[in-house]
């Protein structure tokens, strides 16, 4: 089972803060997972494919090639700014 978290603008666009789903067959990295998530939920595409979307796996910053495993937590969030 994968726990997926959505933060800030992405959470607002998707209308949900989190979801849990079974690890998709044949998925081994974050890019593959994101594609599978969008295939299963086409309405997620605009929010998750914006070029500035950041990701984390198990609370550590991740890249599209980051390996994922069943039981991981994946988070999608926009860039954080301060001031």
Topology:
Elements: E1 2-6, H1 8-14, E2 18-21, H2 30-40, H3 45-48, E3 54-57, E4 60-61, E5 73-77
Parallel strand pairs: 1-5
Antiparallel strand pairs: 1-2, 3-4, 3-5
Q: β content, as a range?
A: 15-25%
What value does the Rg take, in angstroms? 12 Å
Biggest sheet strand line-up: 2-1-5-3-4
The description of the largest β-sheet is: 5 strands, mixed
The backbone outline, from C-alpha atoms, is globular
Helix and strand composition category: alpha+beta
* Percent helix range: 25-40%
Q: Number of helical segments?
A: 3
| Average of per-residue pLDDT values | 94
Distance between the termini: 37 Å
Given as residue ranges, the uncertain stretches (5+ residues, pLDDT < 50) are none
Which series of helices and strands comes N to C? EHEHHEEE
Strand elements, count: 5
Structural write-up:
This protein has 83 residues and is of the alpha+beta class. The protein contains three helices and five strands. The protein has a five-stranded mixed sheet with strand order 2-1-5-3-4. Strand 3 and strand 4 (60-61) form a beta hairpin. The longest helix has 11 residues, at 30-40. The radius of gyration is 12 Å and the shape is globular. It starts with a strand and ends in a 6-residue tail after the last strand. The model has no long low-confidence stretch (mean pLDDT 94).
